[in-house]
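Before relying on records like the one below, remember that each one covers exactly one chain. Contacts with other chains, cofactors or solvent are not represented anywhere in the record.
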Amino acid sequence: IVNETNRYAKQTLQGTNKVWETDADEIRAYMGFMILMGINKLPEIRDYWSVDPTFRYAPIADRITRDRFEEITRYLHFADNDKLPARGKDGFSRLQVDPIISALKQRFKAAYYPHSQLSVDEAMIPFKGRSSMKQYLPMKPVKREFKVWAMADALNGYLYDFNVYTGAMGERETALGEKVVLTLSEPLRGKHHQLFFDNYFPSRC
């Protein structure tokens, strides 16, 4: 993440006199700040640095300036844009962050072995930006989201494996649901686990 973030900042600032870099400690802290923002939600990002004590959040505001936080957000990158396969070429992915996704999936599995009962379901991540992967669901409270297929430990909610839905690939919905269950459960097949899922997924799985 550090290498790709610094690379993207250099690419973005090419032709200017500005030099911008980050390091591993700062990226770790930034990720921690993002987790804290998810726990202590405020109306706007900038409110965490507000002069109004009602909003100002010292665990973040005392450790990083607002401008520096926004700079990291602007340059944060997980892959080299110049090396990403173009649309229509072998290896092209609409996700574009496959390396970090793969690393997370491996770490989640290495860190924990689940109980015998697991749940497969979809998880929705609210998103208002521009992306071809964004789902529009008019009947839900949050109408624009990313969809993630997830398999979690049914007893404690630990996320054991997941796949980000990048769009229809020609499958029928029933075939897609079956594929989701079979793909996520493949590493645990034959190890006496029980899977639970709703009627979106075919019962034949």
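The helical segments are 2-12, 24-39, 58-61, 66-75, 98-111, 173-185.
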